[in-house]
Amino acid sequence: MKSIVLAGGCFWGVEAYFDQLKGVTKTSVGYVDGNKKHPTYHEVCHGVATHAEACEVTYDEQVVTLEQVLEHFFRIINPFSINRQGNDIGNQYRSGIYLNDMSDQKAVVDYMESYFKDDYSKVQVKVKENLDYELAEDNHQKYLKKNPFGYCHVNLELAKADEKK
């Protein structure tokens, strides 16, 4: 199993999307790339903590590749926006790929260069080592499963072609 932390706006939708994919064995939501240990949702939303909302995706490489995970990620975000996804605006909604395994860095950058081609220089998604991912509070885990009418900027229907069986 491999894992990667993806920040793509509000973490509820990113988690709900990846939970639908075949080969994804586990997801969690949390905070990454910030200024303090043990941030709370309130601190992140009010700028006391400088973290991005993120989703850790654990996947079986025999079923879904890193490149397929990235393809899905770029399907659900606007990679050219800064501190914004959908109607969510703020530093906590910035986009990033946080690597648990730095040996994946070249593959991620190569994929992005190939995927975006001439627009690669405009991409605002940062690729960094995951140094501080921390789980969000329990009420945020599987939020859209618990609250099916909750707000989500992600079009969850985009995952249907690759839905878990």
Keywords:
6-stranded mixed sheet, globular, 5 helices, 165 residues, alpha+beta
Overall, the morphology is globular
Mean of the pLDDT scores?
Answer: 95
Number of continuous helical runs = 5
Please state the CA-atom Rg, rounded to the nearest Å. 15 Å
Helix content: 10-25%
Content of β-strand: 15-25%
Q: In terms of per-residue confidence, which ranges show pLDDT below 50 for 5 or more consecutive residues?
A: none
Description:
The longest helix is centred in the last third of the chain and has 12 residues, at 105-116. This protein is globular. 25% of the residues lie in helices and 24% in strands. The protein has helices at 11-19, 41-45, 66-76, 105-116, 143-146, and strands at 2-8, 24-32, 52-59, 84-85, 88-89, 95-99, 126-129, 134-135. The strands form two sheets. It has a six-stranded mixed beta sheet with strand order 7-6-1-3-2-8, covered by helices on one side. The protein contains five helices and eight strands. It has 165 residues and is an alpha+beta fold. Strand 4 and strand 5 form a beta hairpin.
Task: Draw up the topology in text.
Layout: E1 2-8, H1 11-19, E2 24-32, H2 41-45, E3 52-59, H3 66-76, E4 84-85, E5 88-89, E6 95-99, H4 105-116, E7 126-129, E8 134-135, H5 143-146
Parallel strand pairs: 6-7
Antiparallel strand pairs: 1-3, 1-6, 2-3, 2-8, 4-5
